[in-house]
Design a protein that fits this description.
Elements: H1 8-21, E1 29-31, H2 33-43, H3 47-55, H4 60-65, H5 72-89, E2 92-94, H6 99-102, E3 112-115, H7 118-129, H8 133-154, E4 167-170, H9 176-185
Parallel strand pairs: 1-2, 3-4
Helix pairs in contact: 1-9, 2-3, 2-5, 7-8
Length: about 190
């Protein structure tokens, strides 16, 4: 799980590179945007349809028009199935999309939460999207709201609690190489997934 602007995707990809550089028997892959692409390809769905599950861009009219595999519930089921399959295979670093709940109880997984102060998150979002800080504030706020709504919708009554994670790291306080080194230390060479 990650706060918007806390560099979840950047950290995940750098971690996959570092784990692969160790030369273990498992080939590591980070799945953030790649998860959307994989679910879309595996289940013959459009990428925007899969991405809309977490970003909140789907309206009640979209849900009325789409049914079956393209309904919100149908897409959610496919994302969940893919996340669990990737976690069970191993070598997967899963960013967001409810991975903390979808993989809960699977052996060997490590759940990490990446956070950062508001100002750092806004600054990073402005840099990443090449927008003004005012626009970045709106993006971060909206992304946080959509992610919170996503969790409330699919896991009602379940809270994001600190004990769900083996580590919570402030990405504004720790440089990327150190973050990666810390996270790599949590992963054994047996192909555990996150």
């Amino acid at each position: 799980m990650r706060d918007a602007g806390a560099r979840g995707s950047t950290v995940a990809h750098a971690l996959a590179d570092a784990l692969n550089a160790r030369g273990g028997r498992v080939r590591w892959h980070a799945f953030d945007r790649e998860l959307v692409e994989k679910v879309a390809a595996d289940h013959e769905l459009s990428e925007p349809l899969v991405a809309s599950l977490e970003d909140g861009s789907r309206t009640w009219l979209d849900n009325l028009i789409h049914s079956g595999p393209e309904s919100t519930y149908g897409v959610y089921q496919r994302v969940g199935k893919t996340v669990r399959a990737l976690a069970e295979i191993g070598g997967a670093i899963i960013v967001g999309r409810g991975g903390v709940f979808l993989t809960e109880g699977l052996p060997g997984g490590r759940h990490v939460r990446l956070v950062a102060p508001w100002a750092a998150r806004v600054r990073r979002m402005a840099e990443k999207r090449n927008v003004s800080e005012a626009e970045a504030e709106e993006i971060v706020r909206l992304t946080d709201e959509n992610r919170a709504a996503f969790y409330r919708r699919w896991w009602p009554g379940r809270r994001i609690r600190s004990e769900l994670f083996c580590a919570t790291l402030n990405t504004a306080a720790i440089e990327l190489p150190v973050l990666v080194q810390m996270l790599a230390a949590l992963v054994e060479d047996d192909g555990d997934a996150w």
